[in-house]
């Protein structure tokens, strides 16, 4: 969850689309801060016995709450950093070479072709 908050905050200074901001081809209904607030509200107002269903719902909605989502979130942070640090030609080459080596095929494809 913290990685997703960091990702969204790192993009707050630029105009962005749902692909950049939400790590999705469609808009998410809740921001990273909203997910964090849901989590804090849940653990502070509900019994531990009632956490399972709401936590599963947060996991379904939020990138970064599964192994694949976690890799997507950090992949996006690294991709953004590389894109900002290197000229376009070099950054694109680095991303296209490294991403498929360290991420699953679907996540790498999203970061290379959509993000």
Describe this structure in words.
This protein has 115 residues and is an all-alpha fold. It has one domain. Helices cover 70% and strands 0% of the residues. The chain has 7 helices and no strands. The longest helix has 19 residues, at 67-85. The radius of gyration is 16 Å and the shape is elongated. The mean pLDDT is 84.
Largest sheet: none
What's the count of strands? 0
Distinct helical segment count:
7
Residue fraction in strands: under 5%
Cα(first) to Cα(last) distance is: 20 Å
SSE sequence, one letter per element: HHHHHHH
Number of domains: 1
Radius of gyration: 16 Å
General form: elongated
Brief descriptors of the model:
115 residues; mainly alpha; 0% strand; elongated
SSE topology sketch:
Elements: H1 2-10, H2 18-22, H3 32-45, H4 52-61, H5 67-85, H6 88-102, H7 105-113
Helix pairs in contact: 1-5, 5-6, 6-7
In short:
The chain is mainly α. It has one domain. The protein is built from seven helices and no strands.
